Amino acid sequence: MKQELKQKYPIWCADQEFGKFDTVLGDDIDTLLGCSLLKAIKGYNINWFYDFHDMFGINLTNCKEPIGVDMALVKHKCWDNHLTMMSASDYFNPQSANINNIKKNHRGHYGNKYAGSTLLQIWSYYDIPLPQSDRGKAILLAVDVAFKGHYSKRFNYIHNHYLRELGFEELIDVLNRHTMDEMYKVIYAYNLHGKIRINGNGKLQTNINLAELQGFFDFDISLPTDEFQHVRAYKRKGEDIVGKKTYDMDKIFSFALTSQDHVSFTEKIIL
What we know:
about 270 residues; alpha/beta; 9-stranded mixed sheet
């Protein structure tokens, strides 16, 4: 990652204390690989699971501050890649490690957003060597369909600009060697569109092919085997925002624009 960009990330990202924080796992491969990498290099354990409807925890008396991974939390520490600002003067979470917030990207210039994964930001910030194999690099680009913009005449420039800022010129070469159809086949090969869910016994399960993916990473990417307990319920909402300019962030737990004219957010359910 270019130093000028790295210096703009929240100061907590550079904390040197091993194991200082815990992580909050979400429901897809981007969050799982992000959490797994943070555990390997920073000693942050997965203690929470958030599926945008409910929060679950393993050790409920744990006093370590949690970091959400691949989720647009409004007021808590998180690694994120979503667009969260409605306008250039809109609120954004200053504790969010999100290149879109750093760049003040907002709904008004939606096409300029970073459309890569949360995982690539973490990988870049901590200067982790890329996988040695072409397939391993392709998997990184397939997470969260982070390759898509490269194959668009409209978005190719901005897509590759972000990869260069992250220090991933080598990944641009990978995309140049492959077609978009070939990259989608990587997604299908490992079911990277799959989800992580919690079963009736409080155990996590997934239909993502983690066993085959593991061979491309030198850190453990398996799910926690601990039993999770339910902590809090949320109301998930999605709505069009044409003509709507602001939201009351004091009432919202997570908030992201999923397209230029649509938002998805969660509110705590008060019992």
